[in-house]
């Protein structure tokens, strides 16, 4: 894949033949089946509908696959570190500090009984970045970095006192305070209004660019992802069915990708009736 | 209110829905919050009307005020020319002519009732005969076969559940359907099926729609006219042609259109217009 860098240093993230299986009473559910990709310091989108395995892929990388899920891979390496054999203790140190995650809805991912500031300071302390005053300064700087106008005021607010857009900025501030190398964002803007969505994406984009992070952007919205990322992996039934350069979305070849693009109504020139996606069982093979 | 009858030929049909000066205020004293502020619009019989806005714009509250789920503080609402009382109580005839479809089909169907029981309830409430035939007919209308009749909601996909919710609304043969974000909890490919279904049913049954959505493309696809709401007020009323041609007059409307085009990296040229859709196989 295209992200291999020439200098011989290991890629930021190297995933080969990743699978996530859930043995349930009713049989084994194969949520992710043989996913492989390599990520450099770039923006990679993972797109698919519900049940395609896109979020399960992100969670498996972070070591957050819930019980009774079983993660297996030929290779799952972050910056040369084998994530599969990493003891839970080491994994926790990595997570938050070098790999971070932004989730969909700040209403559920922020602690409702702690102020925003206290949560960011806690993140600093847990990651042993700074303590006391220094942690507070760092938290305030971070809130300013996500374009919050009055960081001192927001520092003392509880999550319920924030709007969705502000909450997601606070979440991003918390996740990026450790200056991670890799950020996994799972539907980071889906719960937000369209105009707010773009503001949050702009902040994310700047931070990714200026800090040279790698970004995995997981979303159901193919067009949005293509407008934001460098390349896009399209997932269906636990597999990557196609990889497209974001700028060449119109040239996507897989019938599923083309079906997804076609079935979305468009502002101008919508087709009546909308073409309906005909699912070919062969796509699951 | 009697069952609404179509007007005699020759007289102009009254609008399916007319809302004038609608105001909804929540709270009191210092905590007063005006959710809907002096909103007026009307929807002709058989017309599809869109209410567009972001969260907190009051678009869902307008639907809830029409159905009597919240009590308006001021304004009048009339259905097919007949004013309905603002007191919140609605006669049974109202619910035969006005029905609502909610956003989340996972929340709007009773989890322990079969599809058959769900569809039988409105028939029982309105003492309608021929239940068997009506239920089978309603399922066929929304593209579900007989096999779905005795299933529970957890045995259905999201799209199938939304079809059941639409069947439940249609089984009373309403003239006006209130659609509150009917596809935003669904995947795009399923959304396409539901939008096609709604479009076909409107043509076949001559229904009027009020569609609440945050998605301009969905509104542009389904509606004839729309109102853009912000903080409880109508910012702009426009024909769907103006929306599709991206010619909205208000600055906020233009902002929403720009936002719907996706992310634009500062310093890059205008993104290419929408990539060509895939030709249907």
Automatic annotation (TrEMBL), chain A:
InterPro entries: AAA+_ATPase, ABC_Ni/Peptide_Import, ABC_transporter-like_ATP-bd, P-loop_NTPase
Main location: membrane
GO molecular function, one term: ATP binding
Pfam family, one: ABC_tran
Compartment(s) where it occurs, according to its Swiss-Prot or TrEMBL record: Cell inner membrane
Classification via Gene3D superfamilies: P-loop containing nucleotide triphosphate hydrolases
UniProt keyword annotations, A-Z: ATP-binding, Cell membrane, Membrane, Nucleotide-binding, Transport
Gene Ontology CC: plasma membrane
Its membrane topology: Peripheral membrane protein
Top-rank taxon: Bacteria
Domain ABC transporter: 13-262
Protein family per UniProt: Belongs to the ABC transporter superfamily.
Matching PANTHER family: DIPEPTIDE TRANSPORT ATP-BINDING PROTEIN DPPD, OLIGOPEPTIDE TRANSPORT ATP-BINDING PROTEIN APPD
UniProt-recorded name of the protein: ABC transporter ATP-binding protein
Organism whose genome encodes this protein: Methylobrevis albus
Lineage: Bacteria, Pseudomonadati, Pseudomonadota, Alphaproteobacteria, Hyphomicrobiales
